[in-house]
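Hi R.,

Here's the chain you asked about this morning:
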Amino acid sequence: MDNFGLFFAGGIPIFVGAIFLVVFGIIIFTIIKSLSQWNKNNNSPKLSVPAQVVTKRSKTSGGAGDSSASTFYYVTFQFDSGDRLELHLSGSDYGMLAEDDLGVLTFQGTRYYSFERK
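And the predicted structure, written out as tokens:
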């Protein structure tokens, strides 16, 4: 067997193993990051503060071929101090808000609870 054949005979299992480790590492990293954010939100105070809806946006992913599409909704709120915070909302909460709405935002970390319009 020549050197080219030896490379592929021994290299493919190593390559497949490396890909497996990379994918497994990404999955573990995502789980740890999600748990860390969940814990940070739980340890943050639940706040109700005056805010204004500045912008709304949505992000759609998937939907190619026979697969279904997923839409994610985000709203940016601005506080009296000028600080801004973008939060992920459900579709029904997103639909109830309009840009320039004024009200009281209730949130905990990055977790949205409600927005009561004034």
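Residues 30 and 71 are 20 Å apart (CA to CA).

Let me know if you need anything else.
M.
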